[in-house]
User: Which sequence fits this backbone?
């Protein structure tokens, strides 16, 4: 099925326009919610990879992965 380029452009343009008028505090909250969601998904992956892991183990591994991500991005 061919993609309607004009429709895709219209949808993208509408998203950009909505983002421009979204208050900063809403954007900040959305970022925090997305981070929380990503952490929950990562925790599920950790549990699948290490089925014997305790909740403390899962949190430790998640912390290690977040620290690694910060280092790879050039943070401290």
Assistant:
């Amino acid at each position: 099925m061919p993609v309607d380029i004009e429709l895709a452009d219209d949808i993208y343009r509408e998203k950009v326009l909505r983002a421009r008028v979204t208050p900063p505090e809403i954007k900040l909250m959305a970022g925090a919610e997305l981070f929380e969601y990503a952490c929950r998904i990562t925790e599920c992956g950790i549990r699948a990879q290490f089925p014997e892991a305790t909740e403390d183990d899962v949190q430790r591994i998640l912390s290690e992965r977040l620290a690694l991500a910060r280092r790879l991005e050039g943070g401290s």
In short: The chain has a mean pLDDT of 94.
